[in-house]
Amino acid sequence: MSRPTPQGHPELVTLGEVMAVAAATSPGPLATGAPLRLGWAGAEATVAVGVSRLGHTSAWTGRVGEDATGAMVLAGLRAEGVDVSGARADPTAPTGLMLRERRTADRLRVTYYRAGLAGSRLAPEDLDEARIARARILHVTGITPALSPTARAAVERAVTVARAAGVTVSFDVNHRERLWSRAEAADALGHVLPYADIVFAGPEEAALFVPEGEPERMARALTRLGPAQAVLKLGADGALAVADGALHVRRAVPVTAVDPVGAGDAFVSGYLAAALDGSPVPERLRLAALCGAFAVSVPGDWEGLPRRAELGLLAAQDISR
Asked: What region holds the Carbohydrate kinase PfkB domain (predicted)?
């Protein structure tokens, strides 16, 4: 991670879908007059925000609609310091929507309206290949290739450009069963995995590519498919990483969880920010675990992501230091 970034260019570049979010603010079924909070969310954008809050530069590429919610998304990302100069407002399709219902106090129900909408129209011609080639990290997820053939082609082109330029490729499997089957995901994402230097996955996601088993064994198997680092996110059990053959284990930071959505992306943002810091793998896992703990402690996908000055707030809970 010692490759310098030319001055004025973002250190982390990512691409994908961001949707508007209408989230219930109180438990119960959605009904006329139910209070909702309007916001926005996207896996890759959450990583870009997290990296930016931790002091590094980031950029997001994607499409939103030429509508009020699209303008809200771009304004929100700019406010978080994310470069959206490569984003596009599409006049032919609206911004997607995520409807989040808090059906009971501890059960969320999420409905997506995204098929054929602006985010799914991402295409290779939307990429700034020179920007990708000048970055230190390109981050992609398995969500974007599931959205459409053109979005899949954009991800495949991006990782090809990054690999050719010597840019570190970060790949979060992030399998979404509502978008495609496990067989479809394994086939498509199997073309992305060999380009990755760092792969993030949960055990079920790792099983798309390697036999099920102990997390360490699965992580080691992933590294044999190309990535030098395989990081398995284990939820409340923490995480482990196999990096250049060495095993590193990290416990989760115990907190009161109020919203699990976005925790995995927060974890990734911490890991990648520490990588940009030049920190070793144990420190990357420490910062990743802290970011995940902050995220689940606050309602929303990215809103709880920490800034550097706030990391000490959970220091007492970090029992795995």
From this structure: 11-305
